[in-house]
Amino acid sequence: MDGEPCLPRERTTGYRLSPTVRCDWDIFQHLAQQGLRKGPDTGLPDLEAALALVRGRPLNAGALPWATSLYHEIIARITDTAHTIATWHRTGPRQNLDAARRAIATSLDADDTAELLYQDWILTEDTAGNRAGVLHAIDTLQAVNRRLDVDMQPDTEAIISSIFGTDLSRT
């Protein structure tokens, strides 16, 4: 391009992309910010366009040491974007539960450990009156939590309890 490296190494911060390099991450950030700024009435197309750029786990799942912090930032933004899309589609005046499901699935393909998305999935299936879908979402979350050796978050337990009318701490 102009003779400057596209991936220069900084002495104190490691590698960084040159400002002349454009990638899906730049476009994703722009679209997500624009969609959030517009709000639920007109921002959904921008948020969905941002999420449409996501294809599986970004940056080889942070396997490269220099990419670890960027990987976590990207995953957090993908999760937040999918959560917003799912919430707006589930609770808006023109519900679109299939679009909510697509956003959740796309984000879970990028990071299957984001419990917030399982909460969205459970709530979406409950809104649809799909008891089998609720149970499938819970089973999937429980399998992930077993793999990670972590407990279910209290917010998730509260959602499940509100759906089934039970106190999970007694089961």
Q: Could you characterize the architecture of this molecule?
A:
- Keywords: Two-component regulatory system.
- Residues 23-164 form the Bacterial transcriptional activator domain.
- It comes from Streptomyces luteireticuli.
- The protein is an all-alpha fold and 171 residues long.
- The protein has eight helices and two strands; from the N terminus they run ββαααααααα.
- The protein has two domains: 1-94, no CATH class; 112-171, no CATH class.
- Helix content is 63%, strand content 2%.
- The protein has a two-stranded antiparallel ribbon with strand order 1-2.
- The chain is globular.
- The chain starts with 8 loop residues before the first strand and ends in a 7-residue tail after the last helix.
- How many domains? The number is 2
The outline comes out as globular
* Portion in beta strands: under 5%
> Which whole number gives the mean pLDDT?
91
* Helix-residue proportion: 55-70%
Encode the helix/strand succession as letters.
EEHHHHHHHH
Oligomeric state:
single chain
* Major β-sheet strand ordering: 1-2
Structural class: mainly alpha
Number of strands: 2
Per DSSP, the total helix count is: 8
Distance linking N and C termini: 63 Å
Organism: Streptomyces luteireticuli
Keywords: Two-component regulatory system
Protein name: Bacterial transcriptional activator domain-containing protein
Domain Bacterial transcriptional activator: 23-164
